[in-house]
Prior knowledge:
Layout: H1 2-7, H2 12-32, H3 36-64, H4 70-99, H5 101-120, H6 125-129, H7 150-161, H8 168-179, H9 193-198, H10 201-232, H11 236-241, H12 244-247, H13 253-263, H14 266-282, H15 291-329, H16 340-369, H17 371-384, H18 386-392
Helix pairs in contact: 2-3, 2-5, 3-16, 4-5, 4-13, 4-15, 7-8, 10-15, 10-16, 10-17, 10-18, 13-15, 14-15, 14-17, 14-18, 15-16, 16-17
Amino acid sequence: xxxxxxxxxxxxxxxxxxxxxxxxxxxxxxxxxxxxxxxxxxxxxxxxxxxxxxxxxxxxxxxxxxxxxxxxxxxxxxxxxxxxxxxxxxxxxxxxxxxxxxxxxxxxxxxxxxxxxxxxxxxxxxxxxxxxxxxxxxxxxxxxxxxxxxxxxxxxxxxxxxxxxxxxxxxxxxxxxxxxxxxxxxxxxxxxxxxxxxxxxxxxxxxxxxxxxxxxxxxxxxxxxxxxxxxxxxxxxxxxxxxxxxxxxxxxxxxxxxxxxxxxxxxxxxxxxxxxxxxxxxxxxxxxxxxxxxxxxxxxxxxxxxxxxxxxxxxxxxxxxxxxxxxxxxxxxxxxxxxxxxxxxxxxxxxxxxxxxxxxxxxxxxxxxxxxxxxxxxxxxxxxxxxxxxxxxxx
Length: 395
C-alpha cells in the first residue's frame, strides 16, 4: 500500500516526512508507556513507519542516482542499514547501563529529529529539474520515476507553465502535436502492478536473496547472545561486542556495490550465498569454553559478515534494473507512476518477514536439536539463495 501511494504522489518527500513523524510519535509512546496496549500501539506505529521510510527512501535513492551507479549507492544505503541493525543493540545497552532507561529513547528521538531536519534540505531531482535549463538535462544523467529525455523535461516545464484555465488534456495535446509524438493509448484492464512484479522471476530472485540475508542476520540476533552467555559466561556487554564481527564487514557495502555496477549482480550474489554457507556450518565447531574457541567464533562471524554483504548490494541494484527493463519493454506495464516504490515495498516486506522467520526458526532449532544443527541448517539455507540468483539474476 505504501509503495502504491508513493508511486502515485508527485512529491515523495511528503510520504517520507509522514513516516518519520510516525516514528517519532511511536518512540515517544514507547518511552512513556506504562500499559501493554500503549506498547502495542507504539510497535504498530514503528512497523508502519518502517514500511513507509524503507519503501520511499529506496525509491528516492533510485530516482536520484543513475543506472551506472545504482549498485554502489544501494550498497551504501543497505550496508548502513545492516550496520545500524547490528550495532544499535550494543549502543542501546551501553547508554542504558550508563544513563538509564529514558536516555535510550532520548538518543533515538535525537536521531529521528536530525533525520527530519536533513529531509528539509533535500530537494527531489524531479523538483529541481523544473528550475533548471532543459539543456542541462541529458540522457546520460537520466533518473528513474520521472523523465529521462529532454523532450519529457520540456513537457514537465510546459505543463507547469500552462495557463490556469487551460485543461491538462489540452496542454498534453499541444505538447504532443508540437513535438510530433503520438500519445500512447492506455491499456484498459491493466493487471495490478504488484501482480506484474510478482510475475517476474528475476525480481523474485532478488527478493529471495535479501530474505536469506536478513534471515541469517536476524537469526544471529536471536540465538547468538544466549549461546555465548551459556557457553562462555559472557555478560550482555561482551555478547553485544561480538556483533562487531558482523557489523564492521558490512561497511564494505559501497565497494561491493561499485563492483556490482562494473561486473553485473549475478555472480557476486551467487558468490555471497555460496560462500556464506561454509563459515555458518563451521560455527558448529564452537562447542566448549576456551580461548581458541572464542577466536574461532570471531573468525567465522567475520567471514559471515564479509560474505553476507556480497548479497545485499547486487540484489537491490538488480531490483531497480528489473523495473527499468520491464518499463522499456512495455511502457504501459506499470502506469504513469512507475513501480519503483512498489518494488521496494516488496523488498521491505521480504526483510520484515525475514526478521520474524530467522529468530523463530533458529531458536526452535537450537532448543530442539542444538547449536550444531541450527548452524548447519542456516548454512544450507544460505546456499539455497544461490540457486535463483544463478538462474534468474541479471548478467
